Amino acid sequence: MSQAGKTLRIEDLSHPVLTPMQNMARDAMSQVEVDLSEEGILAEAREQTGLEDFGRDDFRERLRVWLQSVAEDEGLAPVGRYAVRRDIVRYAANRLRFEDLWRRHPEIDEVEISAPIIIGGLPRSGTTHLLNLIAADSRLRSLPYWESLEPVPDFREAPAEGGVDPRLQRCREAYAQQVEILPLLRNMHDMAPEHVHEEIELQGLDFASYELEWIATVPRWRDYYLSHDQTAHYAYMKRVLKALQWLRGPDRWILKSPQHMEQLGPLVSTFPDATFILTHRDPVSVIRSAITMLAYGDRIRRHRVDPPAVADYWSERVEMLLRSCVRDREILPKDRSLDVLFHEFMADDIAMVERVYELAGLEMTPAARGELEAHMVANPRGKFGQIEYDLEGDFGVDPSRLRERFAFYFEKFPIEAETSL
């Protein structure tokens, strides 16, 4: 039964009252020794895949920074440390499979990634909705979550029951477990297996991107990432996209990631013929939503929840993203870039997609319109119920004072301040 329209309040955000399932998840890992050694990670990836060649070994330096950064996060509980390590092993195994596929099929390099539509914008600013709405158009290639987690299949595996891809089956099982352990997560950001995900997941194969910041407190990695040119890692991601397009079409991509806001230079140089869409929303609304989601997840992955610390980190991080965007916005080609204001997008979703299509030279056919409208009917806003946010009560943050921090952003873009906070 749909919970659309229902408003929920997380009353125990600062001092969680754990459910039996949450206690079970934490207790199960409480005595587990988590090996964060470089060789331990790579050995497990080799064992999982039966493969040996990781390709160029420059990734090892970044892997070591990842591992050192995670080891330095003393607040990460054993279950959180285990989950991060599992992700890192998965990236290493994915790299092995990708490099193996590329070696066996060098013709993949001839695949063209032509005129993609690429969305950038703050988390919680409409990027996911716009991505999934456009991805409902079957003429476009997108990256479903299950495929992003394991982009290259293990060709030794047989299909699951009913011919289901075993990668999809694993993702469905993990999603069901996640809903049991953290049921309110999907009210804020549903990670259903078939939803369309961010392509920077593919940069994980090169041990790059800002994604590690979302699952651990890793200032060492953040500083390393921000001090290094990311062009090579965008190029690696593009190689993976070529392989995915070679494995199955269509051949025009719809892509999205908030990270692009601070990497517009590498993004444009990697995808010079793309149509670039930037979403914009009141940063205060963005931050209150993102940090509530993160603090809720921290009841599992961290020893204790520290809402003010989460607010401080992500207020600063959002400012970094926005200052980079304001600085570099003019890098984007004027005839192939569009700024999408959140209030305009929410007022008429389909009309905004029509503007995107016009810019991208893509016709809005009756069939495409029908697919988009069907997606909206099946996925109403707040499908599982909406979370009531309280910046001041939960995080000790005054919304008006926080908004003052982003005056430079409001001066650049005609964003509406969402004052009913």
Topology:
Layout: E1 7-9, H1 20-29, H2 38-49, H3 59-71, H4 78-104, E2 117-121, H5 127-135, H6 145-149, H7 166-181, H8 185-188, H9 219-226, H10 231-247, E3 254-256, H11 264-270, E4 275-280, H12 283-301, H13 307-328, E5 337-341, H14 342-347, H15 349-360, H16 366-378, E6 386-388, H17 391-395, H18 399-404, H19 407-412
Parallel strand pairs: 1-6, 2-3, 2-4, 4-5
Helix pairs in contact: 2-4, 3-9, 10-11, 12-13
Structural summary, described in words:
This protein has 421 residues and is mostly helical. It has a single domain (7-412), classed as Rossmann fold (3-Layer(aba) Sandwich). Helices cover 52% and strands 6% of the residues. The strands form 2 sheets. The protein has a 4-stranded parallel sheet. The protein is globular, with a radius of gyration of 21 Å. The mean pLDDT is 96.
